[in-house]
Amino acid sequence: MKYKDYYGILGLKRDASADVIKKTYRKLAHKYHPDVSKDPAGEEKFKEVAEAYETLKDPEKRAAYDQLGSFQPGQDFQPPPDWGRQFGDAESSFEGIDLESLFAGLSGGRHRAGHGSGPIRMPGQDYEVTAHISLEAAFRGTEIELNLTVPEYDEKGSLRRVPRTFKVRIPKGAADGQRLRLAGRGGKGINGGRDGDLYLNIALHPHPLFRVSGHDLYLDLPLTPSEAVLGASVEVPTLGGPVQLKVPPNTRAGQHLRLTRRGLPKSHDKEGDLFAIAQIVVPTAASERERELFKQLADVSTFNPRGHFQQEVTSAN
Amino acid sequence: MQIKPVEAVWLAEDNEFSFPELVELSGLSEAELHELVDYGAITPVDPDSPQWVFKGRCLITVRAAYRLRASFDLDPHGIALVISLLDRIHGLEEELGSLRAQLPRHTART
């Protein structure tokens, strides 16, 4: 069994009072709790902090933990010979069990199947997992394999961590931050309690071309000055394959050209839209001939894009 | 071993849960869930109906409520307050994300 330094995780000395333990936990929970923290590593850190607090807040569990001795974090160790008789179930073996499961099993036997005054129905644990998928996968729907290590009670009623693999079909229509529920795919219920559920939180990888807002997509559409003025038919990529887009004459930079229903599909509705945002781009090195033609254009053009500067200044005075 | 793929259901507007279902799935008690409705943290589709029904996304809210209660020892009023603030933050984040998506990439980077 690998040792975890619960005091070290909370940044406390071993003689910290119950009140200090509680205050420190609350401070760290504010910082790392996945519902309130923006720290990408917050969830993992919070799990560690919560596990440490779960044991140290309970005087009996804390005494049992202290009796284990002190080791380096991650160091392999075995509980002292009498430990099982004193704190747990002497018949249980510590083989293949981790520290969290060991202390979860010390809850007065109430989680254990077949122990105590009578069987108590307990629902299985819910699991919550973030699935990172590509935009293309969200567009088409996809199948992913999840490898989780989950706590499960064995036939003796001891809590063990076991690897489980799920293949999940993610229907098309995923948007960033959407949740999926897989009923009954969480932890097994105890004594006839219902099985827990598996919740998937969808996170979309950033895409090099498309930016996502809900089910709508945004794409930068670079246009030459002549395409913007004269209009053009240009090929643009979409998640369903390239399409021809008609750029109307006199298109301004920043204008949104809407490609209806070319965004992400919705589960029970129409698709979102794709918006191409016009950008007027000039060549980094115009040829001699191009420069000559631009010069001619400059000479004949009466267009003044800064005309409103003068008007605004005059009206302000 | 061949693993059979499992189907997943979106928690969105198109699925609904009854009050007893929400109690069972959230881990909260009936009384706590009632209080969350009273404080406006979740709203039934028809609050005047004798049998409350909730949109799928309410399950996300009540599961967050359960986690917050367990992690911070909050009472229902505290939970409802945190949830309403989190909802506002999520709404603002969505708005910010949508505005960022509309910015041309080179502008968004500067």
What does this protein look like?
- The complex is a heterodimer of chains A (317) and B (110).
- Chain A has 317 residues and is of the alpha+beta class.
- Chain A has 3 domains: 1-108, DnaJ domain (Helix Hairpins, Orthogonal Bundle); 119-206, Sandwich (HSP40/DNAj peptide-binding domain), CATH 2.60.260; 210-288, Sandwich (HSP40/DNAj peptide-binding domain), CATH 2.60.260.20.
- Helix content of chain A is 28%, strand content 24%.
- Chain A is built from 10 helices and 11 strands.
- Chain A has helices at 6-10, 18-32, 42-56, 59-67, 83-87, 99-104, 135-140, 225-230, 288-300, 307-316; strands at residues 127-133, 142-153, 159-170, 179-182, 198-204, 210-213, 216-223, 232-236, 243-247, 256-259, 274-280.
- Chain A has a 4-stranded mixed beta sheet. Chain A has a 3-stranded mixed beta sheet with strand order 1-5-4.
- Chain A is elongated.
- Chain A starts with 5 loop residues before the first helix and ends with a helix.
- Chain B has 110 residues and is mainly alpha-helical.
- Chain B has one domain (16-109): Orthogonal Bundle (Multidrug-efflux Transporter Regulator, Chain: A, Domain 2).
- Chain B has 5 helices and 4 strands.
- Chain B has helices spanning 19-26, 30-38, 57-72, 76-102, 105-109; strands at 6-7, 9-10, 16-18, 53-55.
- Chain B has a two-stranded antiparallel sheet with strand order 3-4.
- In chain B, helix 2 packs across helix 4 (76-102).
- The longest helix of chain B has 27 residues, at 76-102.
- Chain B is globular and about 50 Å long.
- At the A-B interface, strand 3, strand 4, strand 6, strand 7 and strand 11 of A face strand 1, strand 2, helix 3 and helix 4 of B.
